[in-house]
Amino acid sequence: TSAKPMKETEGVSFVSEIMSTNVVTIEKDASVYKAAKIIMDSEFNHLPVVSKDSSLVGIVTAWDISKAVSQDKFDLVEDMMTRKVITAKTDERVDVVARRLDLKGVSALPVLNKENHVIGIITSDDISKLYARRH
Amino acid sequence: TSAKPMKETEGVSFVSEIMSTNVVTIEKDASVYKAAKIIMDSEFNHLPVVSKDSSLVGIVTAWDISKAVSQDKFDLVEDMMTRKVITAKTDERVDVVARRLDLKGVSALPVLNKENHVIGIITSDDISKLYARRH
Ligand SMILES: C[S@@+](CC[C@H](N)C(=O)[O-])C[C@H]1O[C@@H](n2cnc3c(N)ncnc32)[C@H](O)[C@@H]1O
């Protein structure tokens, strides 16, 4: 129980410890159908969109595809993605990232390395799992 | 910092304290388009599906709509919803619910009252937010 303090409950956690590294990305000239297929196959809801040189240019999610359905507008990924992507770095604290998710109203952040390449993704699912381990 | 123990970091949290009560539901004979529209308007990813008497009969998510797109199969909500819904109760501990989310591989649980009516929803976003407050 939380009344008995344990070492583990007191440590600081970093993004690198809980992010997924098997992140699946998509190119901006892919179709909505392809994005939907990748989301279905990967069980990820958030796909970072990358350009040919692997740099991050957007993010597309199951929510965006649902929006496309509601508007009956099936364009390319680049027409429906969010361009201003909120991101995280591997050495950031998880609590800092959790506040960023909350503030920005999103559920996942692509994790970038120094070259701005996507090397992982951290989601509120990952943070919830960490909460479970610590309580 | 987490090195300085605070009262707040030690308490046990319950579902009722962090769930959303403004949950939006959908009826099972609604169209996929309607579900997509509600998801877009509400910014929720998860819609509990209820029958005429308000009891829970399924759940439909942005992910399911994305799946429908990838299969080019736009049926009614009842044809695409998940019927075996994992749920939570208001008086459960958040850590217990966080473990259930992880174990079942889902991001949200409808919260039921004693009559099995949906009175809220708890998501990994809510738990991540709680983590942010406590660290
Ligand atoms: C407002 S959120 C609501 C649904 C859910 N919380 C989510 O994150 O998908 C949906 C919108 O946020 C965008 N989005 C998701 N993650 C993002 C991120 N890391 N940076 C910028 N936009 C993001 C999506 O492209 C989508 O248009």
From TrEMBL, chains A, B:
Transmembrane segments: none annotated. Keywords: Amino-acid biosynthesis, CBS domain, Methionine biosynthesis, Repeat. Residues 19-76, 81-135 form the CBS domain. One of its GO terms (biological process) is methionine biosynthetic process. It comes from the Archaea. This is Homocysteine biosynthesis protein. It comes from Methanolobus zinderi. The chain holds residues 366 to 500 of 500 of the full protein.
